[in-house]
Amino acid sequence: MAVDLSRQGYRVQRWAARGALTAAALAVATPLVYGGLRGLLLLVCGVAGMGLSAAAVWWTLTLRGPLRWAAALVAVCVPAGLIALFAATLFWALLVSLALWALAVWSGRFALRGTGSERPAARERRLPPPRRPVLIMNPRSGGGKVGRFRLREKAERLGARVVLLEPGKQHDVTALARAAVADGADLLGAAGGDGTQALVAAVAAEHDIPFLVISAGTRNHFALDLGLDRGNPAACLDALTDGVELRVDLGFAGEQPFVNNASFGAYAAIVQSPAYRDDKIGTSLEMLPDLLTGQQGPRLVARAGGTTLTAPQAVLVSNNPYRTGDPFGLGRRERLDSAVLGVLGVRLEGAVGAAALLLNPDPSGLTILTAPEVVIEADRAEIEAGIDGEAMVLPAPVHCRIAPGALRVRVPRKRPGVTRAPARLDWRRLRKLAATVGRTAAPSRLHRPYVAPDAPDVPGVPVAPPVPPTPPAGPGGPDTPGAPQEPAGPRSSHQ
Asked: Sign (positive/negative) of CA torsion 243, 245, 251, 255?
């Protein structure tokens, strides 16, 4: 007897969804049942403590003097005390709860495989190696990674021409990249931070030639989302001989390109300070009270699509949206070719707003959306901005846009960060999947509607299977010409 593998596979996913929901419910219920009334009181204390901690963090950032240090003490001691209290009272219950929660996450992601929750794989093209690659390297980036990993020597052995930026000297990176193209370069690359990467990438996109990312900066978020090895920048050079090409988007804030993000508001104002490079924490603590309370800095208005954000303390516009709903992928971009900007706006009104940001699942002080264009306005002629971490001042208003597929990135064929991303843990979809009976909600790859042999194959439009002919029913029957026909019954829909 034939086995319907698609039906079996979907049944397994449905039961995995039910198992995930059950494990999540037990993870919450176990400490409450184990502790009884005491467990319920501890839960209430935990929620109140989280709110107090968030408020204390706000006071730490907006106050000065002894009050700031008192608030910082509260922000540290309250969470530590809660952890100790829970561990002493509900130790075994907490361990069981954590294990159940891990099971819920694993089962939920297994259940959502093949339902459209996974990150789509980026398209890769195999192309012959470049003949005249030119790489611009900043020896100061990342604490001297260019010299430590001998990037220049390896690149020259592979046939690349290296332009080394001299320490202590101002360089026009854009002009150097354009000169390399005019001299016949068929690939541009950059070894440095994200700010340097963006400038060289814009020239490569302008001339439609491949761009090579070498992760020689401090953080290199762009390299991270491309799956490159940030711990060994020399491995990025393998793309010169064994590489593939990806098409990704490029962001612009006015005329300034960015591969990661453009920030406006508090952070953008702080990075303008000359003291920030030498004392990041001290400079931030000195400037934040006035910036967060509106006593210093411009009053911003951000417009994205049909949404207007008035007087935010900070706005972050990213080249493709960052992942925010899953703590396991926080700060990562699922893809770099979605042709939209990510927008993250924060507007907090005092300590209560800070507590709501932590406790409310849909806080009013946090705006997260996507749009192809974002306009940042201000009550002054210029706006301070941080473009891929570089301090800039741009004329207001600043029009942020995305150039879809503008950048050809050449990366190694084998790179450690390229793994199949787990499905998003969407509890709403899990509930829907667990509640279904039969195959009506099966994902499209497992359940394909019947298509008549002679009918055109229109994606997404189900066609009913053929109905066997009905013998004539005599005069006045359904097959008698001119006889009234019964209305067709409702079509079954595939969710």
From this structure: positive
What are 187-239's pLDDT values in tens digits? 999 999 888 999 999 999 999 999 999 999 888 889 989 999 888 999 999 99
Q: Which of 370, 368, 334 is nearest to 116 (CA)?
A: 334
Say if residues 215 and 149 touch (Cβ distance below 8 Å): no
Query: What is the distance between the alpha carbons of residues 62 and 72, in angstroms, rounded to a whole number?
Result: 11
* CB neighbour list of residue 55: distance below 8 Å, 6 or more residues apart: 351, 352, 354, 355
Q: How far apart are CA 267 and CA 388, in angstroms?
A: 12
CB-count exposure of residue 181 (10 Å: 0-12, 13-18, 19+): middle
Check whether the bond before 372 is cis (ω within 30° of 0). no
Pick from 183, 130, 184: nearest CA to 160 = 130
**106 Cβ contact partners less than 8 Å away, ≥ 6 residues apart:** none
Would you say 268 and 346 are in contact if contact means Cβ atoms under 8 Å apart? no
Residue 151 DSSP one-character state: H
Report the range of poorest mean pLDDT among 110-119, 140-149, 302-311, 401-410: 110-119
